[in-house]
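Thread title: Can someone regenerate the structure for this chain?

I was given the following input by a collaborator and told the matching structure tokens would be attached. They weren't. Posting the sequence so someone can regenerate them.
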Amino acid sequence: MRLTLNLGIRYDVADWPREGRPGNGSDITGNIDLNNGTYVLENPAPACSPTQGAPCIPGGTLPPNVTVSANGRIIQNTYDNIQPRLGLAYRINDKTVFRAGYGRFFDNWAAVIGFGANFTESWPNVAYLATSNLNNPYFTATAQDPLSLGSGPIVPVPIPFGQGDGFLDPNLKNPYSDQYNFGISENGRRIPS
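Best answer:
Regenerated them for you:
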């Protein structure tokens, strides 16, 4: 036999993690979808009130261009990570063989922890607080209110579009590389190319 072919396929599902845990409010966060200009909440949030702080919706109604994910996910899973593999060996004569191989390789774990941190407890949550007087030359905060937030629950700003945070494409695809090699060997020794 002069030609040997090896064919294969690998399939990976990229299951992006959901943020937080239901019941404690950490699963109520959002991400800007720059594909359509909306802000998408992972899960619905209650209205803010004198007893309900963040995560909550100021005024009780979602602002314009803010939606809630239909499936409780901010980043959509990827189901098309099909990775073909091909190998061949061709015997040119009794002493010489040509070999080649090809494969597509997806990187399902590239910066997955960093991606999760990009939208960790963003609006309407308040994991990242900004206060106005910490850089004032005359510090006015007290031990009872060190961030000068006042009394009552902490509530988010009315709309999510002014916050400083990291965001990512909700339809993010996994990076991949196509790799190949080929070579000729004679009497079991590789011939330099």
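Residues 3-190 form one domain.
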